[in-house]
Amino acid sequence: MIRVEQLAARRGSFTLGPVDIDLEGDSYLTLLGPSGAGKTLFLETCMGLISPASGCVWIDGKDVTRTVPEQRHISYLPQDLSLFPHLSARDNILFGAKRRQLDKEQVAARLAGLVDLLDLHNILDRNDVSTLSGGEKQRVALARALLPNPRLLFLDEPFSALDATIKRQLQVKLREINLQMGVTILHVTHDQEEAFMLGEQIAVMIHGQLQQVGSRDDIYYRPATIDVARFLRNQNIFDLTVEEVLPDGSLWLGNGIHLKAPGYAGAKKGLRLAAGIRSEEVMVIRPNKPIGPELQDNLFHATVDDILVFGGTHTLCVRLQDSGITVDVELPNCAMRDLGYAVGDALRVCLRKRSLWTIPLESPDVWKEDHDDQL
Amino acid sequence: MLQRDTVFKISMLLPLAALAGYFLLLVGSQAAFFSLTGFFEQLSQADIHSAITLSLVAATVSSAVAVAVAIPSAYALARLDFPGKRLVDTFIDLPMVLTPIALGTLILMSWNTAFGSLLASFGLTVPFTMAGVILAQFTVVVAISVRMLKATFEQINPRQEQVARLLGCSAFGSFCHITLPLARRGIVAAVILTWARAVGEFGATVMVAGTAKGQTATLPSSIYLAMSMADLPRAVTLVVILIGISLLVLFGVRMVMEQKR
Prior knowledge:
The complex is a heterodimer. Chain A is an alpha+beta fold. Helices cover 26% and strands 33% of the residues of chain A. The longest helix of chain A is centred in the middle third of the chain and has 18 residues, at 164-181. The mean pLDDT of chain B is 88. At the A-B interface, strand 6 and helix 2 of A face helix 9 and helix 10 of B.
């Protein structure tokens, strides 16, 4: 459907890419990244609003790198929606169909379908779109983008200004649209929950570089770079060295802490790597509770240093007794109520091998300079 | 606290009242020299008719051309990137800082070049003609028009134009269907103010076109001529006409601006 090859662009001192991405028809890709990562610049370059410094954009097998935006047949829903204030809600929605001179009967049928799907009955004939609520504006802008029957829909942080309830309703609508209308969607967001809820595939962009593209599980449990791991709130990241490669391919890692981790092709003794585990994947076990052999590896005695309370979860900051390393453990409120831990309590934590991820560090110096303060 | 608020309000209102009083004095002082009979008597004179007609026609043509040139120029300055943009942007402000007399001199001198001779060979003569009046007014007012319209275009969200492009508009289509309608009130305000400035233009017009009665004398230059010959009833009549036109225009601008809000 859309393929981007080595696409690079510049805005001021910021450089995007080179980016490679291949999006199949009817798929839903969320492009996730922090503010200033270059996500919007990437969309603008793909849409032809900005000339690329290098690289190509292919749509349906045709090179459109030098094609004007109106001939790329991409519909776009920007963050600020950009409704046309001098037009009524109906004229906003019909704008694209009129400009493209689409068949009137088809447009009328499609409009009726969108009015039902997006519940536009009460707002379709509103003359002043500036008086619509945030959710109403969102639905009008979405209908405007969908009416010309695009095969590609680009969404740029479309729900960032909405409250949680309306946001959820519209997210559900978007999934329906993707499935029912067969529209390929590229959705830019910095909201991780939104990205994981909507995206079949997720691409993570940081500092203008596409750091990882993969399934939800790939991105969440197997980050490809330290930047991705940190952006996805992996709190427990360790700077380690391979001490031994076991016959089954597993690795023994050490550097203050001694961990058994999954192996990977090319692992060898002495290699420096980052290993990590999500805080919700860390198991806590009472000191005297008997445990099975599957939990014997990576089991550490620890003490609770601090307890942080969030909305639905608690985070225990525990200090491992032998190494002094601090590990964050996230527990749902109900588990925390049952376990009843307090600061100073002794416990055991298990960093299960299957939950650990590892990233080879090509340049240890970069790790030292950039990440020592966060370790 | 309330007392401090009152003192603050008074300190703001007093200069305003003084300013309004000063302008009232300027306008009101004409009453001593004004009589209705004299007014209509002056108004029936052919050269005054000619001055009024010339002022209105020349101002309309020059402001229309100025706005027509200013719309694309201001859009280019507001939206496009091109080499030498800053230089061009500064250069266009020149008529706003240069005295109109100097501008008029520039126009006259430029007509004494090969370029002027070339245009003259096509029958376009500027010095001491109606075309000169229009060119002088255009030169003075076009910068005002560009400045106003640039500010108008800068206020329009460029994302709206981009969305229109992706919905099927060409760059020109997006400009016509989105940018121009959104800039409508700014354009109307620019037309009115440009026109008002053109009607009142004196320095450059006198330099380029002179003050030939019934030919190139506009309302402002006729006032100057009347005063220089101590013909007070004529001067006051012309001033009253100019005030009437100016008040109408300013009222129009206020109406447009209030709609904008």
